Amino acid sequence: MIFIWVPTELNLGISQRIFYYHVPLAWIGMISIFIVGIGSVVHLVTKNDKWDAIAHSSAEIGVIFATLILVTGSLWAKPAWGVWWSWDPKLTTTLILWFIYIAYLMVRSYSADQILARRYASVIALLGAIDAPLIYLASIWWRNLHPRLNVGPLSESDSSLDSRMLLTLLVATISFTIFYSYLLMERIKMRRIEDDLDEVHKYASDEI
Amino acid sequence: MHLMKFKIYIFAMVVGVLGFLLGSSYLGELIYAESPSSGSTESNSGPEANLDYLFAVFFLTWLAFFGYIFFLSRRLKAMGKEILLLKEFIKTNDS
Fold first, then answer.
1. Alpha-carbon distance B58 to B5, whole Å?
2. Which of A20, A83, B9, B72 could form a Cys-Cys staple with B33, CB 3.0–4.6 A?
3. Which residues pair with A86 in a beta bridge?
4. Where do the structural domains in chain B lie, given as residue ranges?
5. What's the Cα-to-Cα distance from B19 to each of A60, B13, B24, rounded to whole Å?
């Protein structure tokens, strides 16, 4: 659909097709940090490691999507704006989200006390959950280079997309969401095995 | 143990993005701009203009996904080996 079916945009030309990758990736980046945030809050309240496993798995996948948002955005900015990067509010808040993801994973990886690390990471995840709506609203609050919202409840009425463009975007978004859900479920399963293995290792070393 | 392996990947990603941002200050407007030129600069110069950028997006996105799946499969393989070792350990302990 992206390469053959959808019409080419008049102003941006063929590079506008990056939109069908960039927007679904951004959507998943947001969904992912919300899942990390929810998992972290529930983990902080209940101390149940199951929720921490969900948050950690989502963060690990989310960092890949967040990296791809920045990379695809940069590759789109070059033909559209003439530069690879600009300190536009939307781009800057997205970069902050990327740093939050990295901080979350680093706190977990480098800390010796895993119980404490999980709690600190949960607090960092909450910062990410606050940053996500800021990214979404950045193009409305601070008018700058990044285009305003084309779809969704806060989009402008005069910026509606062509029906074929909208359908392509919808299909791409659903496909990426299914892909993300599959990766998340597999990663959670794997995380449980990792935890079980660590427990067995601990037990075995105690036995020796 | 599993977390130790992940550190390398985090480190590589941090170095990549920081390198890009810091490098921008040396290369000036070529990479980074406070106020980039408005409007498209490279589009509308033919039907296949900017096809490279679209290809790069497509290629890098799928490369990242396959890379992550490869990383997961390697981790799964390592865990399989650990399970085998633990089984052997239990067997020798029982006998």
1. 28
2. A83
3. B33
4. 51-95
5. 21, 10, 8
Q: Structure tokens of A125?
A: 């995840």
CB contact under 8 A, A83 and B20: no
- What burial letters (b/e) apply to A90-110, b meaning 16+ CB within 10 Å? bbbbbbebbbbbbbbbbbbbe
For chain A, the domain total comes to 1
Complex ipTM tops 0.90: no
- Report residue B79 CA to chain centroid gap: 22
Domain containing A124: what range? Answer: 14-207
Q: Is residue A8 part of a domain?
A: no
Question: Which of B43, B61, B86 minimises the CB distance to A13?
Answer: B43
Q: What is the rounded radius of gyration, in angstroms, for the C-alpha atoms of chain A?
A: 20
Which residue, among A9, A10, A71, would best test binding to B if mutated, counting the most B CBs under 10 Å from its CB?
Answer: A71
Beta bridge partners of A91: none
- At residue B47 the predicted structure's pLDDT band, cuts being 50, 70 and 90, is low
Sequence letter at residue A65? F
> Average pLDDT, whole number, for chain A?
82
A61 to chain B, any CB pair closer than 8 A? The answer is yes
